[in-house]
Inverse folding.
């Protein structure tokens, strides 16, 4: 397997700083670019570059103990009550217009579904934290063995 060269050059694309990859030894194609306003674009095989929206924080934790198994930009988990947690960010979000996605599961949970939701009725998302809740499918709050969340902005 052969790998091509990687280069950096400022091209005639509105002053963007572009990164080029020579994948066929002689045919340079744009693989990434930084716009003057800080936006990052990349081409991951779709034929053109698009804005990369990064995961600003992520965490996997045990709901019973609120102990973090792994995380990025999460300083701690606060257990507010059964199935009720606050995810605290190490570095605040620039505003509260972020998206939270998550999942939860229980070892040997049986037939009931586990539900992950942002608890904005209890506490509005803040730049430094977001509150989430876990439920059984019947609406009863429950501590879940494994909770995962990712925050995009």
């Amino acid at each position: 397997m052969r790998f091509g060269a990687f280069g950096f050059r400022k091209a005639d694309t509105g002053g963007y700083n572009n990164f080029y990859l020579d994948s066929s030894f002689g045919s340079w194609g744009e693989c990434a670019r930084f716009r003057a306003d800080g936006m990052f674009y990349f081409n991951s095989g779709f034929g053109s570059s698009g804005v990369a929206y990064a995961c600003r924080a992520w965490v996997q934790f045990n709901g019973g103990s609120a102990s973090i198994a792994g995380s990025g930009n999460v300083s701690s988990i606060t257990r507010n009550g059964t199935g009720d947690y606050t995810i605290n960010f190490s570095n605040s979000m620039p505003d509260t217009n972020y998206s939270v996605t998550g999942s939860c599961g229980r070892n040997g949970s049986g037939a009931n579904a586990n539900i992950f939701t942002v608890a904005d009725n209890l506490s509005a998302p803040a730049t430094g934290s977001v509150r989430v809740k876990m439920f059984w499918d019947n609406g009863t709050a429950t501590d879940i063995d494994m909770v995962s969340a990712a925050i995009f902005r």
